[in-house]
Design brief:
Two copies of one chain form a homodimer. In chain A, the strands form two sheets. Chain A has a six-stranded parallel β-sheet. In chain A, strand 4, helix 4 and strand 5 form a beta-alpha-beta unit. The first copy, chain A, is α/β, with parallel strands linked by helices. The first copy, chain A, has twelve helices and nine strands. Helix content of chain A is 51%, strand content 13%. In chain A, helix 7 packs across helix 9 and helix 7 crosses helix 11. Chain A folds into two domains: 176 residues, Rossmann fold; 110 residues, 6-phosphogluconate dehydrogenase C-terminal like domain (6-phosphogluconate dehydrogenase C-terminal fold, Orthogonal Bundle), CATH 1.10.3660. Chains A and B meet through helix 7, helix 8, helix 9, helix 10 and helix 11 of A and helix 7, helix 8, helix 9, helix 10 and helix 11 of B.
């Protein structure tokens, strides 16, 4: 990346898995002259500074964003409204505000009104993660080969969009630009519903008696294990995603509940052909995934 | 394994993923003097013989079981009643009939009445598998480090149980003996329900419009991909499992549907604390899995 495109100072607000991975990647690829972290947990901040993730760390968002030409909001999306209010009077003219939230309509809703005239707003979602959380979980390679969706509101400065796209490209990501509402629909299916289900099914198992629960753990290898891995993700982050993508999530969840009921009924009435037909069509989408090299 | 415990002739009925993996393992560990395969698909049989999985292959179950001191039934469980009827008059005195079916009460129900006086019956379930199927999918290491549950009916010959346990131990498995009904309850939670859900959710995505479906495939990496892998398993096998573990499966499925409805309601009404509490308890069971080295 040429020096003229390098950011002078990146402020990362919130140093969890994504924030810390971004700090690693920015350092590795020399994407900024200075990295400043704002984090509300003193413990997480101390950990991040001990790991050398930033040049400066602070508990104060205004102090972090002052003089930054890029502010990347990496907190759970439920905190965005507050983050926006706290930082709005301290953003530098010409700065870019972006984020990594897993929902985008609520980010436009919560952060958008806090962006002053002359500051650019490029909401983004790097689709990458692990089931681990916190500043120690981050690593520079997290983003490699994965998609990053940008959802700039109509009229957003093209150069600002390109600078954010370029940042994530340098981190190894592929870029897609789409409408925030469409993003939320797609992610409701690919990510939010699978997590909702994984949390639920692991909870259902937890409710069984202690005796059977121990055996569920012992014999988890046959399907259940994959669900528990998905369900190990950060609770606060997921609470916020569920609450902030409510409509799209309830829509696909309703569809799925109908489909479960249909399959339950077929099992109850011994309708083998119906069951098999349903199972067979799922192989088709798996094949498409393999063709798309996403499997 | 000492020669006195080696089987003279193992008949493997059905040469899918488990049957072919067993054939590989039997050869590698020299567990039998001779391996005979019975398979109803000429194509699968040809493939198995070309791969050198057996000394002899046949389309005739009577021909395969005649003279075998171990008959291992590896077909989908829906075929067990027919397999039992076809082979019952051809089993050798002193032989052991075992199986690898993922449900056990229905196996006792369907195969049990076909076992003549003087033949031993040791139902078993090696909990191992991949999302691939057919004779080319098998490999000897499939069973290593995994559990095998045996569900011998009361009064089963102890030596016969021990020989089957020893066979699977030599293949690398850990052995657990339990009641067939209890097995079916535990597996309903750890395996059958996760598969039912994975099939359903992938089907739900398939029902969405073509435009959104393509994007679901493109951005599958964030949870959905794990479900499609689970959902790629053999359709006939899973149809039979669902139909033959109906009661236990409908019971846990009903519990889960209630839990989904509860979470849906909390999302609809914006009950953040309730959502977070539900998510947090799933981490606990994940931690237990890690402690039990099943994660």
């Amino acid at each position: 990346m040429s020096d003229e495109r390098k950011f002078e100072r990146i402020a990362i607000i919130g140093i969890g898995l994504i924030g810390s991975s971004l700090a690693h990647a920015v350092k590795r690829h020399d994407l900024a002259g200075e990295i400043v972290i704002a984090e509300k947990s003193q413990e997480a901040l101390d950990t991040a500074m001990r790991l050398g993730l930033a040049d400066r760390g602070t508990l104060s968002i205004p102090s972090a964003v002052r003089g930054a030409d890029l502010v990347m909001v990496c907190t759970p999306v439920g905190a965005f409204a507050e983050v926006g209010q706290v930082m709005q009077d301290h953003l530098s003219p010409g700065a870019i505000v972006s984020d990594v939230g897993s929902v985008k309509q609520s980010v436009v809703r919560d952060l958008g009104p806090c962006i002053p005239e002359g500051v650019h707003f490029v909401p983004g979602h790097p689709i990458a993660g692990t089931e681990h959380s916190g500043p120690e979980a981050g690593f520079a390679e997290l983003f490699e080969g994965r998609w990053c969706i940008l959802t700039p509101p109509p009229g957003t400065d093209r150069d600002a969009i390109e600078r954010i796209a370029s940042l994530w490209r340098t981190c190894g990501m592929m870029i897609e630009v789409m409408d925030a509402g469409h993003h939320d629909q797609v992610l409701a299916v690919t990510s939010h519903l699978p997590h909702l289900i994984a949390f639920t099914i692991v909870g259902t198992a937890t409710d069984l008696g202690e005796h059977i629960q121990q055996e569920v753990i012992k014999f988890a290898a046959s399907g259940f294990r994959d669900f528990t891995r998905i369900a190990a993700s950060d609770p606060t982050m997921w609470r916020d995603i569920f609450l902030n993508n409510r409509e799209a999530l309830l829509e696909v969840c309703g569809r799925m509940s109908e489909d479960i009921a249909q399959l339950q009924r077929a099992i109850r009435w011994g309708e083998g052909e119906k069951i098999e037909a349903l199972i067979r069509r799922t192989r088709e989408i798996r094949r498409k995934l393999i063709d798309a090299k996403q499997a």
